[in-house]
Amino acid sequence: MSSTAPLAVYSERLLEVRRRFVLYPDRVVIEARWLLKGRFEHTVRLASLKREHRRLVVRYRIFWYAGWTLAIGGLLFAMAFHQAQGGSVGLGGYAMLGVAAVGALALVVTYPLRRLEFVRFDAKSGRGGLDIGSAGNDAATFQAFVRLVEQQVQRSGRT
User: Fold this and answer.
1) Which of 151, 132, 159 minimizes the C-alpha distance to 14?
2) What is the pLDDT along the chain (159 residues), one digit of tens a residue?
3) CA distance linking residue 6 with residue 48, whole number of Å
């Protein structure tokens, strides 16, 4: 690897992973820190990517899980409350209230990320590629980084 200075750096932050993209003239180095899986580093050669990219909008799965956790916890607590008939709901009822509260908290935390925009640069070989998500600093920084990657992919394709 050459010891050139990076052209740009972009950071992507989700609950379960933090990824840092470091753009060099010929490659992108992705440094990922997963919450429970540790650290990984991967290098994508820009010459291996197609020039055109696609924009994808995906639903953040943790937001979806949080909504279901809230709904199921709330429903089970309501059942325990109804069964108690004005008395104490017991340990199980309070546990279900806790599940609903965890779901509500996760829903609030993940609400800004409920729909994530990704830019996908497909590989020429058809396997793998480069996905960059708009879960970082701000939209302008994300768009600027994507433009730089696109320019570098086009330059690397000419050489």
Assistant:
1) 132
2) 456 889 999 999 888 889 999 999 999 999 999 988 899 999 999 989 988 888 989 888 889 999 999 999 999 999 999 888 878 888 988 999 999 999 999 999 888 888 888 899 988 887 778 999 888 667 888 889 999 999 898 888 665
3) 19
The answer to whether 47 and 121 are in contact (CB under 8 A) is: no
CA distance 60 to 73: 20
What the block records as the tokens of 21 is 């993209």
Question: HSE on the CB side for 107, CA within 13 Å?
Answer: 14
* 153 vs 128: CA distance, rounded Å: 15
